Amino acid sequence: MHWVKADSSDFSGNLPLPRSGHTAVNVGKSKVVIFGGFADRRFLDDISVYDIENKLWFTPYCTGSGSDGQAGPSPRAFHVAVAIDCNMFIFGGRTGSKRLGDFWMLDTDIWQWSELTSYGDLPSPREFAAASAIGNRKIVMHGGWDGKKWLSDVYILDTISLEWMELSISGSAPPPRCGHSATMVEKRLLIFGGRGGGGPIMGDLWALKGLIEEENETPGWTQLKLPGQAPSPRCGHTVTSGGHYLLLFGGHGTGGWLSRYDIYHNDCIILDRVSVQWKLLTTSNALPLPRAYHSMTCIGARYLLFGGFDGKSTFGDLWWLVPEDDSIAKRLVSAPPDILSESKSVTTLSGSPESSPKESQTEQAPILELQKRLGISISSSKAQVNLVDEMEDKELHELSSRLAGETLPTRDQFACIQALRDHWRRSSESSIQLQELGPLLRDYQRLIIHKYLKNIVSNSQFTTPNLPGEDYCFFHLKNASLVWHQEGDDHVRVSSLPLRSFSPFPLPHHWSHQRVLQRPFSEGSEVRVRFWCRW
Fold first, then answer.
1. Which of 166, 190, 214, 361 sits 20 to 30 Å CA-CA off 526?
2. pLDDT under 70 in the chain at which residues?
3. Dihedral of the CA atoms 501, 507, 512, 515 (nearest 10)?
4. Is residue 207 classed as helix, strand or coil in its secondary structure?
5. CA distance 372 to 9
6. Peptide bond into 336 cis (omega under 30)
7. Among 252, 310, 409, 274, which residue's Cα sits nearest to residue 18?
8. What is the pLDDT of residues 196-223, one digit of tens each?
9. Sequence-ordered strand ranges (E) for 167-267
């Protein structure tokens, strides 16, 4: 399996904002629905939807009414969400310091919320519970935290009659917990991990039988101790069902016995349902940063990771975990071609000067990588990116006017902006102020689109137009080691870049003819590619 960070070529539309403690559910095979979460010290109540067929993220306009007249659920995080047919059911969670016990349904065909009045044995308000669907009608929920104690109760909801039933279970049972996972596997509910009474983080696996009425089984828990490389104790992880195995990712635990320090994980461990054992999933390429309280959904043979928290930062990145033969994994071969051996690289360099498909693909690779890093989507005919127009970039105007010492009228603003660019070109990386970084990046993007990529798309060649002006470094890559130094029309020399980091700011004129060719690199090395254009 390969980890691949999602880029602008994978999606269109409005991507979800960073968050943790949200939920993400598959509604049929057509969409993924994300709800709620926590970010920037506030609880969220928004909906983000990924249309799988059209590869489109959008925010639907939802109608509805609740008991207090609101159109939908209040902002919350650490709730449970389960999809049954076209409906997403949510229960509980937390907003502020309040644990919630309300129950809502979202009809994703018409995007309408309904607060449901349920019956029977109503569960108490809670957060960090775990739930799963039983077939296409019922939902099972286990455990959680009610603000005073950890819970171990089990409830079953009939989504047709809206009746809750607390399951009476005899015999041994798992300790109370929250932040664990709960997954239905055929006729059994499997729970793993979580934080328990007194605060310890657990790594035990339990199976609950007796959830299917037709089986006439007496409900009961069994602790499972499976062979293989079991996950370390953790909570806030995800367990996602896909094919014949369950995929466990992330979560957080502690540094060891008596340790009070949380350790966040980014490992993938599978529970193989055929061999009935734990296995560490070997993945290639760069891994997502360790995190907990993220979401992981299965889309065909792919898994989509979103969001989470690592104790300091809240994430908004999207990652694919895909098989080796997936088209997303294959694009790593063509952009950039880091799987090419050094011998093949030399052969390509010293071969015929005539252009070949492989050479063309190699030359296009840095452009594809550039598009990904700067969020630029290029079609066959033109570049499409959400850019602020130069004359409407207020921060750029303020910086340029401040540099000139006065506020210039609009007719002189272009000259002022050019003076600001000259200032950036002459400045060392340490002298660039923090407030200049946003305008500098946007200015790079505009210049790339208007002065460089337009020529590449129209001419289908990796050549720098011979335009008058200065040279600027505008792209920076960590894992590449070979560049072309073009010293004339025919003579090409290959050299290795120094293994050091440097600033993404303008550099001296005499480096302007370096061009990216290939990027073979060793595991763990940090190297950079300098990529240049003229305007």
1. 361
2. 199, 255-260, 332-388, 391, 404-412, 429-430, 448-535
3. 20
4. strand
5. 8
6. yes
7. 310
8. 877 689 999 999 998 988 778 899 999 9
9. 177-178, 181-185, 188-196, 201-209, 220-224, 238-242, 245-249, 252-254, 262-264
Residue 332 token pair: 């790593």
Contact status, residue 322 vs residue 49, Cβ threshold 8 Å: no
> CA-CA distance, 134 to 212, in Å (whole number)?
8
Among candidate residues 21, 134, 17, the one with its CA nearest the CA of residue 83 = 134
The residue type found at 456 is I
pLDDT for position 142: 97
Kindly state the tokens that stand for 333: 């071969």
Comparing CA positions, the residue from 530, 519, 518 lying closest to residue 480 is 519
Place of tokens 């979460």: 37
SS3 category, 493 = strand
Q: Lay out the sheet containing 268-272: strands in order across.
A: 238-242, 245-249, 268-272, 277-280
Token representation of residue 82: 């389960």
Cβ atoms 312, 306 nearer than 8 A: no
- Cα(79)–Cα(473) distance, integer angstroms: 46
Q: Which residues, 6 or more positions from 104, have their beta carbon under 8 angstroms from its beta carbon? A: 66, 72, 73, 89, 90, 91, 113, 114, 115, 116
Residues ≥6 apart with Cβ < 8 Å to 297: 24, 25, 26, 32, 240, 303, 304, 306
Alpha helix (H) residue ranges in 394-453: 394-404, 413-426, 437-448
The two tokens of residue 516 are: 């990216």
- Tokens at 521, concatenated: 């690199």
Q: Taking the mean position of all CA atoms in its chain, how far away is CA 86?
A: 25
Q: What is the pTM of this model?
A: 0.63
Contact 65, 53 (CB under 8 A): no
List all residues 6 or more positions away from 505 whose beta carbon is below 8 Å from its beta carbon. Answer: 424, 427, 428, 429, 432, 440, 473
> What pLDDT is stored for residue 398 in this prediction?
79
Closest by CA to 392, choosing from 375, 373, 417, is 417
User: Do 112 and 132 meet the contact criterion of CB atoms below 8 Å apart?
Assistant: no
Distances (CA, A) of 79 to 163, 203, 339, 471: 19, 22, 43, 52
Helices (H), 246-393: 327-334, 342-350, 357-374
